[in-house]
Amino acid sequence: MSKNLLPSKYLQVRGAREHNLKNVNLDLPKNKLIVITGLSGSGKSSLAFDTIYAEGQRRYVESLSAYARQFLQMMHKPDVDLIEGLSPAISIEQKTTSKNPRSTVGTVTEIYDYMRLLWSRIGIPYSPTTGLPIVSQTISQMVDKIIEYPEKTRFNLLSPIVRGKKGEYRKEFQDLSKKGFQRFRINGEFYEIDEIPKLDRYKKHDIEVLVDRIIIDKSNEEKLSELKQRLADSIEIILNLSDGLLYLINNDTNEKIVFSSNFSCPETGFTIDEIEPRLFSFNNPAGACKECDGLGYSNVFTEELIIPNKKLSFREGVIAPWANNTSKLYTQTLESLGKHYGFDLDTSFNKLDKNTQESLLYGSKDEKIEIIYNDGTRVFKSKKVFEGIIPNLIRRFKESDSKWVKEELTRFQSEQACPLCKGKRLKEEAIAVKIDKKDISEITSLSIIETEKWFNKLRSKLNPQEQKISNQILKEINDRIGFLTSVGLGYLSLNRKSGTLSGGESQRIRLASQIGSGLTGVLYVLDEPSIGLHQRDNEKLLETLQKLKNLGNTVIVVEHDHEAMLAADYIVDVGPGAGIDGGHIIAEGTPETIKNNKKSITGNYLSGLKFIETPSKRRPINANKKITVVNAYGNNLQNITVDFPLGVLTCVTGVSGGGKSTLIIETLQKALSKSLNGASSIPSPHDEIRGLYLIDKIIDIDQSPIGRTPRSNPATYTGAFSFIRDWFSGLPEAKARGYLPGRFSFNVKGGRCENCQGDGVIKIEMHFLPDVYVKCDQCNGKRYNRETLEIKWQDKSISDVLDLTVSEGLELFNAVPMIREKLETLKEVGLGYIKIGQRATTLSGGEAQRIKLSKELSKRGTGKTIYILDEPTTGLHFHDIKKLIEVIQRLVNNGNTVIVIEHNIDVIKVADYVIDLGPEGGDKGGKIVGCGTPEELSKIKSSYTGHFLSKIF
């Protein structure tokens, strides 16, 4: 074989120039675990995702037919000279799997599909009323069962045609008589057709047709054969008459034995059609609950959202949906109700008695109330039943065709479990089918760790036939569940909605699915899989990545985690800086090679030459200045009472699923937002929040985008753009032309280019090729018209300014304090490399979070603000974390309180106070493991966080 035809041992990249990459050349070893690292914005993702993965995906899609390509997202060809040795590429990014409420952890991982198959094959239906098993039988099975009885046993074979129903049934008796049936059992008594008494039409009756009477005779083969044939014929007639039911009455003991050809409860008539996998699908009409269409919940108007603050009076707007309504009708209706129930508009809602509150919310029922309405010219009086606030909202929501009205009313609705299926999503028929007395929804509601235990025990409880049927199905289920626990997701449940998962959880679910697929010879590209993982679970994740590699795959990971780098076979360090200062390969090789490279910032941190210092002195905790959450019991929280000291940096830690987000985001943040900002969100259940008077503001700095459209950018978000537009409109040439600040906005007509409406690009749809964005030929991508671009400051137009990096902008506007201050704070949070006008949609979650931080830094602090940050180190290199900590400490030094949910030990060790939740995830979490300084926590042996801190202190 020619040497050139041998498969390459390396993935060769030549001349990569995508985004900020500077003509990068690389030889990456195949079938290895490769970590690409570097500062935020240095070009890691440009190399891993936008060059290597994009080219692998593009080549695969290009190999398909034009027809197939129209259904797939086509990647554009990256700016690279050559990539050789490329395998089929799969990207696993940090994106929430699906916002579809029908998508769950079980459906995404296909575990639920196998469970549906299992329940349909070995599940036994039970009657919801009697709790007894319901069995479907063929005529042959019924015959075999009957002839098992002892010789000479006498039986009546009855067909139950009426079961517990009112009526006279004269016509039915006539029709049956014409068919030759002469004897009937009515309410337990036998009658000939001409002896049947007149039945009371208002009473319930049980009517059975006597079809045959037999005596068991198995004395010889001929008699047995005759008996079998006779039974088969009679049973067929009976089943046709009674829709599949047969009553066998033992004449000697009067015992009634019921046979059914359907899955039907003989007592209640509860029936189940054929048990197939679709019966257990909440996405299929065959299985979905009729009330909620398989969603498991319904949106209902909630008293807590309609009356968020019961201390307010009617005049102060206690009824939130009516608070901003200027119509006299509402005010005068309330005055009429007040006259009837004995209150005035200055009465607070909580001063009303319970009955009056109920009547206002749910209506006066049969009680008529005089409503007086004065339109200014005439007075109208009417006496009628008051509809009630909640029924009024329900009616308006149903009757309205206005999208705006529906959106407005939705603010007063909350999700509540469906009253019919109790949140199980499935029909009663599906819930009735059980394995080991458990229905399918009971198992999906367990944590994955508990589910794994249940399936492991199940095999020994099955009979040989059930084991044979279920062996392969159970193997597939157990394998997939095992992969989920191996990536640290054992605390999740299979019924957890995909939309509620964090980016890191979604990524690890896809990672688990890929290991389950068993593919080999594939190139996997992952984006920070360690995000959201406690140090304890990191080892499991690294083992999983090694498994993926050992299957014969190349695994490229964009990562900043210390342990992940040390576990890698090969590291690529991109830098030296970010943005235009990045895009070079600073170092590459084994972890040891990187450690010894003095030019590499990463290497310096790995070797210990550089490090994040532990503060020599921590801020003192003032026992009188604290916010206390009393008895929080949402999700898995175990009735915990937690103190949050004010004026310090508090870190909330614990393993994944320990209850951190429930306590901080769902309880504390939502409760404070509701109290301080009047937010409509409902916090997780708790008794009370103490110390509210000590704060006046709560700000959640999360990683959601700073804007949903390409028109949003760092300048518009931070407010810098307003000052930039003011500056340009104040220039002599702009004044001479009469240009106002609006002239320099690309969102309104006037100064923008109308050909592209200020976007700078024009989108051309290509159907089965990727959409093409071409530079606008009128403005040449500059967003503004020619006249606006003629206004310049130091030879830079408004478009040129938007194209500058934050660092370059600082040099240009150094003498303009208002603009300089805004840009300085962006640089302080490590974002000097991003462009002033960079589209919000191109910013990472970490970058968006730091832009929000910079906005807060530029404000004057009141000293009574609580900032909440959920994993702010996401996407950050050691060096960036160092800068971030400095910024957070500045916020605290201004007298504010910062509460951070974090797993990163470098952040935890600099906190003034640590609250550790756990000890495990899911049901075994939700408790306080320890509180105190990092040094104090390091001494608590039951704390996993303490264990890792003890290596420092």
Total domains: 5
Shape: globular
In quaternary terms, these chains amount to single chain
Corresponding CATH architecture of the largest domain: 3-Layer(aba) Sandwich
Number of strands: 35
- Overall pLDDT: 90
Content-based structural category? alpha+beta
CATH topology heading of the largest domain: Rossmann fold
Query: What Rg is obtained from the alpha carbons, in whole angstroms?
Result: 36 Å
- Report the biggest beta sheet as strand number plus sense, adding barrel if it closes: 6 strands, mixed
What fraction strand?
15-25%
Unreliable residue runs: 1-6
CATH H-level homologous superfamily name of the largest domain: P-loop containing nucleotide triphosphate hydrolases
Name of the top-level CATH class of the largest domain: Alpha Beta
- In DSSP terms (H or I, runs of 4 or more residues), the helix count works out at 34
N→C terminal distance: 60 Å
Question: What is the helical fraction, as a range of percent?
Answer: 25-40%
Please state how the strands of the largest beta sheet are arranged side by side: 5-21-22-3-23-24
Summarize the structure.
The chain is α+β, with helices and mostly antiparallel strands and 953 residues long. The chain is built from 34 helices and 35 strands.
What can you see in these coordinates?
The protein is α+β, with helices and mostly antiparallel strands. It has five domains: 3-96 and 502-607, Rossmann fold, CATH 3.40.50.300; 137-261, Ribosomal protein L1/L10, rRNA-binding domain (Ribulose 1,5 Bisphosphate Carboxylase/Oxygenase), CATH 3.30.190.20; 297-417, Orthogonal Bundle (Helicase, Ruva Protein, domain 3); 615-705 and 845-953, P-loop containing nucleotide triphosphate hydrolases (Rossmann fold), CATH 3.40.50.300; 709-842, ABC transporter ATPase like fold, CATH 1.20.1580.10. 34% of the residues lie in helices and 19% in strands. Strand 25 (626-632) and strand 26 form a beta hairpin. Helix 5 (139-146) packs across helix 7 and helix 28 packs antiparallel against helix 29 (817-828). The radius of gyration is 36 Å and the shape is globular. The model is unreliable at 1-6 (pLDDT under 50).
